[in-house]
């Protein structure tokens, strides 16, 4: 087997994030669930956008954010996701390619507009997301580039995209290509609401197609329907080769072949916006794994990357993560 050309290839929603600061009264007035992610239609997206006032726009999407982090670490990365040939689609394409990421998915020339996520950041740094998925949900198996997947050490799948039947087919095709090439497949559960909707399907994926699982405390407890994190931890130990479970300020727990490793959190310079914390943890962890690091070091890399992103607005790093982790001796 030849050495992989890419450390990680990501499949996920191609979204432009629109971020704004607002307090809880704004959330209540507009019926936004604090700390959650709600799917909305195009009309609702426009109404909320008009109400937000001053915003910051940045290309986002969970897996795309992770891929951006891997590029910042110095890794070679590719992304597969669908945009429309509109203004936001052009912006997304320019942004991700400017990071050195290979992005070759053909844009749609008709149908829904490019996806956008309206993120309201509260004074306590909680983010409440209202997402119009638009063209992102039109990813199909035909968009999966076999050459890119087979040349990537790890293929990373975003749970948020596990909804449309065509996207599911794309996931399963990518996983099959990766395993046929003797590569690894990683999955992030993305959100508890995703788990609640597709618990049985996610469990089937975890037990049959996934080598590395990412989840936070709420997601893993939802997956196994347990009352405590420890119960969920015991359940996942026998279901997948690697599980990287994040617990916010309590750090992370990494399970490899049933063995449990506890990794401390990295203290941020400031707590400004938790958007993208899980995405950047995954970036550090996946880069570490793809470059042959041990489980504790992978968890530490993830913690450092997560700490950087929560210290400022937006879901992507503002510093060179490769230099940052090097300054920490990694």
TrEMBL record:
Alphabetized UniProt keyword annotations: Kinase, Transferase
Domain of life of the source: Bacteria
Entries under SUPFAM superfamilies matching the protein: Ribokinase-like
Transmembrane annotation, as ranges: none
Carbohydrate kinase PfkB domain segment(s): 51-316
Molecular function via GO: kinase activity
Family annotation (PANTHER family): CARBOHYDRATE KINASE PFKB DOMAIN-CONTAINING PROTEIN, SUGAR KINASE
The family this protein is said to belong to: Belongs to the carbohydrate kinase PfkB family.
Name of the protein in its database record: Adenosine kinase
């Amino acid at each position: 087997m030849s050495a992989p050309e890419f450390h990680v290839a990501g499949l996920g929603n191609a979204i432009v994030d629109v971020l704004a600061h607002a307090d809880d009264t704004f959330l209540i007035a507009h019926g936004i669930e604090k700390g959650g992610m709600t799917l909305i239609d195009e009309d609702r997206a426009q109404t909320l956008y008009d109400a937000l006032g001053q915003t910051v726009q940045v290309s986002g999407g969970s897996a795309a954010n992770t891929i951006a982090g891997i590029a910042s670490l110095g890794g070679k990365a590719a992304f597969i996701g669908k945009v429309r040939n509109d203004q936001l689609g052009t912006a997304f394409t320019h942004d991700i390619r400017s990071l050195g990421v290979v992005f070759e998915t053909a844009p749609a020339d008709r149908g829904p507009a490019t996806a956008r996520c309206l993120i309201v950041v509260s004074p306590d740094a909680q983010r409440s997301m209202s997402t119009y998925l638009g063209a992102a949900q039109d990813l199909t198996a035909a968009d999966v580039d076999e050459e890119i997947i087979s040349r990537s050490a790890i293929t990373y799948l975003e749970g948020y995209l596990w909804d449309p039947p065509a996207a599911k087919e794309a996931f399963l095709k990518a996983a099959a290509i990766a395993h046929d090439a003797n590569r690894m497949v990683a999955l992030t559960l993305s959100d508890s609401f995703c788990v609640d909707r597709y618990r049985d399907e996610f469990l089937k994926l975890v037990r049959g197609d996934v080598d590395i699982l990412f989840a936070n405390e709420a997601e893993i407890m939802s997956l196994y329907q347990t009352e405590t994190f420890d119960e969920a931890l015991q359940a996942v130990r026998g279901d997948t080769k690697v599980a990287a479970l994040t617990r916010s300020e309590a750090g992370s727990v990494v399970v490899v072949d049933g063995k449990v490793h506890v990794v401390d959190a990295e203290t941020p310079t400031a707590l400004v916006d938790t958007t993208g914390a899980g995405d950047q943890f995954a970036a550090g962890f996946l880069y570490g794994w793809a470059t042959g690091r041990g489980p504790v070091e992978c968890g530490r890399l993830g913690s450092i990357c997560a700490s950087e992103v929560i210290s400022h607005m937006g879901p992507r790093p503002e510093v060179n993560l490769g230099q940052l982790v090097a300054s920490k001796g990694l």
